[in-house]
Write a structure and sequence with these properties.
Length: 297
């Protein structure tokens, strides 16, 4: 009888030890192994999947194809220091004016899958917009102005459709262009671009004053015509200029001028036929962003 009781007690002790080992040793080890496998099979491929890290393919939507191909203003590039001889070859200098611009950002997308639908939504609400590609992201902006107060006045209306919309700011500081006597026409072109900057500020104010009835259509036409004349002057001076390598690529600058000229002509046509403030704002957004692309280099 005693042997039977002793055997039962021994079996119970062994069972208790086994249970303790299971919960204290085996189960934690199994948990670690299972967790490791889940991380390997599920989490890591999702984070590091090649399809997520690849750049979106080229798209042909309006205002995206040619915009945003260069680095953003905040990026820092390492530049090899110039030799003393290279620095001494620039005997002249001229300052390019700064440019400050405010816009309402409504979204930032990693790919272009939903852009068509978003454009349709923006159009249905008559919200001007531009889509700017930078750092493999598609950033969607609505309304833009050189004066923050004009954008603040539009923000509530945009937030009725896109509650998370906020004001974004681009500031391109004053830049000094150095050139030698061989770079003929450089100073004229840079001074013309300074006049263009002044015109962009004036065009921005005029557009928002037109929207609120602060100026007449004839006054707005006058601002557009002045802008167009400046573009013509720059294009003419650019033909005979020899710009230094540290300033602008002549072909890119010419492309910007061509796009601005098309926007001005389209806006002037609207003011004489069927005034459409939505399209006027779109044209101005395209003009200002193309200027930013050139100036931020």
């Amino acid at each position: 009888m005693r042997r039977t009781r002793f055997g039962i007690r021994k079996k119970r002790r062994n069972m208790n030890v086994g249970i303790a080992l299971f919960f204290l040793v085996i189960l934690p080890l199994l948990s670690i192994m299972i967790g490791s496998r889940i991380t390997e099979w599920v989490v890591i491929p999702t984070i590091n999947t090649e399809s997520m890290l690849q750049s979106p393919g080229d798209i042909t939507l309006e205002n995206i194809k040619e915009l945003g191909s260069k680095k953003e203003q905040d990026d820092t590039e390492e530049v090899e220091p110039k030799s003393e001889k290279e620095n001494n070859q620039f005997t002249n200098k001229v300052d390019l004016k700064p440019l400050s611009f405010y816009m309402i950002q409504i979204a930032s997308l990693a790919d272009n899958k939903n852009i068509e639908g978003l454009i349709g939504e923006l159009q249905s609400h008559a919200l001007p917009h531009i889509i700017y590609r930078a750092d493999n992201m598609y950033k969607i902006y609505s309304y833009g102005a050189t004066d923050r107060k004009h954008i603040e006045e539009k923000l509530n209306a945009v937030r009725e459709v896109y509650p998370d919309a906020y004001i974004s700011h681009v500031n391109i500081g004053q830049r000094q262009i150095q050139f030698s006597d061989e770079n003929k026409g450089t100073e004229n072109v840079i001074q013309n671009l300074n006049t263009l900057v002044d015109s962009l500020y004036e065009s921005s104010d005029a557009l928002y004053n037109l929207s609120t009835g602060g100026i007449t259509l004839e006054e707005y036409d006058k601002v557009l015509n002045q802008h167009e004349n400046i573009l013509t002057t720059i294009s003419s001076n650019l033909e005979s200029a020899e710009l230094p390598e540290n300033s602008f690529a002549a072909d890119e600058l010419k492309k910007m001028l061509d796009h601005q000229e098309k926007n001005i002509k389209a806006s002037l046509e609207m003011t004489t036929t069927d005034l459409d403030l939505y399209k006027l704002h779109n044209n101005f957004l395209d003009t200002i962003f193309r200027t930013i692309e050139i100036f931020k280099i």
